[in-house]
Write a structure and sequence with these properties.
59% helix, 131 residues, mainly alpha
Length: 131
């Protein structure tokens, strides 16, 4: 792109800016359409009280998520006061609560490290002193 007179350069910048605005508007409209296209109200018909509502799924084989749930004591309730309270004892909680607690700690550590390393790398790459 060579030297352009000020008017031509101004028109070209407006054209580029206009295209970016159009692309952003199309992307936003697409995101809204995708977000709300699947939004429908789920309703279920209530069974009359005289009908038997027991499930016949009890004889079927359990899937992978059920096996994981059984391994992590998914049916056992956790007590948040024993996890996050002053007398915290995570070992007395079910396995799923212990796993989520560990994931939460790990994600907090990764967030802090990323918050420190990211800006430092950005400074090294684009800062006033080039390495």
């Amino acid at each position: 792109m060579g030297f352009l007179p000020p008017e031509a350069a101004h028109r070209q910048l407006l054209r580029i800016f206009d295209m970016r605005i159009r692309k952003a508007a199309i992307a936003g409209a697409t995101a809204l359409a995708v977000t709300f296209s699947g939004a429908s109200i789920a309703t279920a018909a209530e069974a009359p009280s005289d009908q038997n509502t027991t499930s016949s799924n009890q004889t079927e084989n359990k899937g992978g998520s059920s096996k994981i749930g059984d391994a992590l004591d998914a049916d056992t309730n956790a007590d948040g006061r024993k996890i996050f309270g002053q007398d915290a004892d995570v070992s007395s909680q079910p396995a799923w609560a212990q796993a989520l607690y560990g994931i939460g700690i790990a994600s907090a550590v990764v967030t802090v490290i990323g918050g420190l390393v990211g800006p430092a790398l950005n400074f090294i790459k684009f800062g006033p002193i080039k390495f």
